[in-house]
Structure formats: C-alpha cells, structure tokens
Amino acid sequence: MTRDFLLLLPLLIIGAGAILLMLRSAFGKMALETASLVCMCIFGLAFIAQIFTGTVGLVSPFSSVFKGMLMVTDFTRVADLIILACGFFTAMSSRSYFKENKFGTEEYYSLIAFATFGMLLLTLSRELMTAFISLEVMSLSIYILVGFNRRCLTCAEAVLKYLMLGAFTGAFFTMGTALIYGGLNSTRFEVIGGAIAAHGFLQSPALVGGAFFIIFAFLFKVAAFPFHAWVVDVYDGASIPVTGFMATALKTAVFAIFANFLMLDPGLKGSWVTYLFYISILTMFGGNLIAIGQSTIKRMLAASGIVHTGYLLIALVAVSSEHFSGSVILYYLAAYSVSTLGIFAALSYLSGTGETRSQFEDFKGLAKSRPYSAAAITIFLLSMAGIPPTAGFMGKLYVITSAIQAGQVTLAVLGIVSSILSVWYYLRLIIFMYFHEAHESFESECTVFGPACTLILAVAVFAISLYPIAL
Prior knowledge:
Blueprint: H1 2-27, H2 32-51, E1 58-59, H3 63-66, E2 72-73, H4 74-100, H5 106-124, H6 128-146, H7 153-184, H8 189-199, H9 205-221, H10 229-237, H11 240-262, H12 266-292, H13 297-318, H14 327-350, H15 366-369, H16 371-385, H17 391-405, H18 409-434, H19 449-465
Antiparallel strand pairs: 1-2
C-alpha cells in the first residue's frame, strides 16, 4: 500500500499543486513572480519524489481500486521524469518571458501544472478510456495556453487551428475506443494484447479499425506525416515558453502511450511496421523541406520538431515488442528536450517585448553583444543537428544503431541523410550570430531565471551525452 502511494505521489503532487494554484489565483491575489516560484517548487518536489521511488519493474498501483487501469514501469518512470523536468524549466523560463511580455497571469502556471497532470496520467494509462480522459485534460490545458495572449491575432489563429484539428483527433480516438470495445468487450490493454495473441490482429475487423483510429490520433499529436501541417502555425502563434513545453513534454507523453499501445503484442506492431517505415521517412524529409524554407526561428524549430518525430518513429520501428525497455526512445526524448527547451529558454529573454526578434536576421551579431547566450544557443543547435559530443549526437547514434540491429538498414541510412540535410538550417542561425555585425545591443529586462535556465540546460546537453544506455 505504501509503495503504491509512493509510485503515484508525483502525480498527486502535480494534481494538488495545479488545484492550489488555480484556487489561489481565483480567490486571492498572488504575484506573478510568486506563482512561478510556487510552480517551480511543485515540479521540483514531484521530480524528487519520482527519483526516490527507485526501480519498480512492472507494478499496478492500487490494483483493487483501479482494476489495472494504471501501470507503473521503469519506462513510464523515466518518461515522467522528462515531463516533470520540462514543466520545471518551462516555469523557470516563463518568469523571464513575462518580465517583458505583460499578458501573464497566475492562471498560466496552473494550466502548466494541469497539462502536466494529464501527461503523467497518460503515460500510466493501461486502458483506453483512461488514456482518452488524460489526453483531453492535457489537450484542453494546452489549447488555453496556446491562445493565452488574447490581444495577439496570431495566437487566436493558432488556437483556432489547433482546437478544430484536436477536436477531430479526439473524435477519432473515441471512435477507435468504441470499435475496440465493440469487438472485444473491453478497453484494457491487457485484454487487447491477449486477444491479439490468441486470435491474431487481422482476425477482428473492429480491432483493426479501432487500432487504426487510435494510431491516427497519436500520429497527429506527435506531428507525424501526413498529420503535421498544423504544427508550424500553432507553434508560431503560441508564446515562446508554451511552444517549448508543447514541443518537449507533450511529445514525450504521447510517445510514451504510443509505444505502450504498439507494444501490446508482436502481432499489432508487426502489422504496422511497414506503414511506420514509410511514415518515418516522409516525416523526416517532409520536415526538412519545410524547415529549409523558413525565415523565422520559431517556425524553423517547429519544422525541425517534425524531423525529430521521424527519428523517434525509427526507434519505434526498430524496438522489440518482446523485450521492450524503450531506452533508445527515452534517451532521444531527453536529448531532444534539453536542446529544445534550452533554445526556447534563450529566446524567452532575447526575443524582446512582443517577440519582436523572431527572424534569423534579428540575431545578427548576437555573439558580440551576448557571447554566453550565443554560445548556449550554438550548443543547442549543434545538439539538434547531431554534432558530437552532444546528447543529440548520442541520441541519433543510438537510434541508427538500433535500426541496424533490427535489420532496418535502409531506414538507418535515410536517417543519416536526413540528419546531414538538417545541418543547413541549424548552421544558418549560428552564421548570423557569429559572422555578422550587431545592429542592436540585445538589452532586455529579464530576470536571472532565463539565463540560468539556459546555462543549466547547456550543461545538461553534455551531461546526458555521457550517460550510456543498453540497446
């Protein structure tokens, strides 16, 4: 009983913290700086609680109450650590961002916590209705965060697109759940996996159709081809900290549930390997094609996020459903998250009031005016490009190696080619920062939190690269 409580303690801390922040902002005036500190403390406490739970294996907490709807594994624990870290650094960088952009309120941090609660619950879900509720808790919070700046027309356009497409995605997930329930009389992962093992995946039309709709929803959420069109406009319209949070924490949560669902049985994964093979290729090269033509940094990073989804799909194709640990997927998510959060943390205090510095040209000569910030951004970009000795390089190395070990040599070669192509648009910003004269002093009213967040994440890029994993 005590162990079960400790396993769910991070989830309970985030849930209680979200409600506390919401009530405090509604019934008592809390300074925005205080709200950010409280939010950081909540995430830090949950992160520490998650670390001290230790290795768990495969545990269903309070199984007599939840009937196996939740499952804690080492895979979900590490995924939750990544999500909690993303929430912490998002709250940290938001403090600097709202120093110059005055639309922030206390409810913002409550929504960050509620979105994180949905993400944590999503990773633990082992039942489709629980996963749907978690997905909606997460999505509804993100919708509001995307359009949080009500005076910004771009934000309004972004939230409208995301809300409309997200509603269709939720409908598809619900339809898939209904079909699976109709075919198997259950929505639990354990029952679905057992039915596939006993009768085969293709023997039940309802199961095939339900799995199709559910995987469709997951592919939309991670911005995989051909469901990637929304991501550039939505990321561009959202505020910088929210964009970084969506690109990292949200992707980690969805890939965790995606992997758990796909690995229910070798028959389910085997039926989708060929499709995921082509989807990963089209996602990588489609994202590169979009990123090369962008002139603003946020849109380029949004398009590059599509490319990184392609690499994660390679890892998903290569992973074994019989001995699934997810170490390669988690390592790549961690490496991608620190690099992406780092560059968005730097942009949170460099972009200026109203994010006026958004173009590549706006960062000309940054290395001469803010050398440490330019060096940190360079580290993040090199990591995203996969240049050694960064965590991004090690992440791509593990992905390519796992693909070769699984016999997916073609996919590994195309992953390398895609990585080479991506170097161009990452180096483009570095060239502007180091090989042009500065047109302005890049002065800002930011607090110490933004630069400190950038520094910590820059160190983490190298620290993660030193951590070995077993393939």
